[in-house]
Amino acid sequence: MKNRLLKISTALCVVAISISACNSGTKSTTAGDSTSMDSTASASLKPAGPAPEWGKTIKPEMQSVIEKLVSYGDKPLETLNAVDARRNHTPTDAVMDLVAANNISVPAPMVDTIGQDIDVAGGKIHLRIYTPKSGKGPFPLIVYYHGGGFVIANLDVYNASAQGLAEQVGAVVVSVAYRLAPENKFPTAHNDAFAAYEWAVKNAVSLKADPAKIAVVGESAGGNLAANVSIMARDKNIMVPVHQVLVYPIAQANMDTESYKMYADAKPLNKAMMTWFTEKYLTTMVEAQNPKISLVNAKLKGLPSTTIITAEIDPLHDDGVMLANKLSEAGVKVSSRNYEGVTHEFFGMAILVPEAKAAQAYAADQLKAAFK
Q: Which domains does the chain have, with CATH numbers?
């Protein structure tokens, strides 16, 4: 475990490609025309076998990452306890190893990072703050929430997304290490997420950020948290984010949607894992209907403009579509884009997967427009 943590901490820049070179002007409704991808990177990734049964449309770069992840031989997450599950390899490990094996060059980071511990109800949480190296500010501010089903993962695993957005948007990013389940049950992560947002609002000026230009971004469980932060800010009458980017968010509790059925056995996320995450975070399954978990049941009127990003080969695909529809019905301005041939967790893989590079550029464009 220590060796794996050292590997992650010393190679963060490997997975955090500077996406400032992305083709941020893409207008495609899918990721299919991402023309700015480094051809040497994409050409070097060739799958070893046929497309998996659960993902016949998978793109070759995405398949190469999944094949590498499978090659580690880890036990299925849903068969483990939370402590052991956190020792499993992650998609980030697969990306890092493929980058190294294929001698793919990595741009130098365009941001500085520092750590900050803050007090929250019942304890402390850690924040990682990314600040652009160029420019004097005040910069826009993004509060970012990582994925992992409220149970696994950390700031290192999702470093590429947070750093990439900081570089592409030219923003300060505060990445939040909310407390995980089952050690910390629902709604601890939700409360931590909002506490971090409150801290960011109060400390924006000292972060070289503009307190009038704050957005929230999250992936998967983090997408759920980001949306909840906007809801809580509205309800508590503090500054509502100017925009929210929700990347394949957990948005409802029904695991019989079409995408759950089609991709029940997908990787790196499947239906069994979602059941496991739910059982670990919630005290009773009745809580799955709580509007904080089932966002489609929440009061959504008055939320900020929203960007929703989904992956085709993902049990949570329909969650994102359903939430986009509910937000639109509530009068919220919504922009959404689905990326074909990629799986859950693709967003942070910009250095290898063209669709990820396009998705990050799209998210950055949406944020920059909201900050104007």
A: 111-371 (3.40.50.1820)
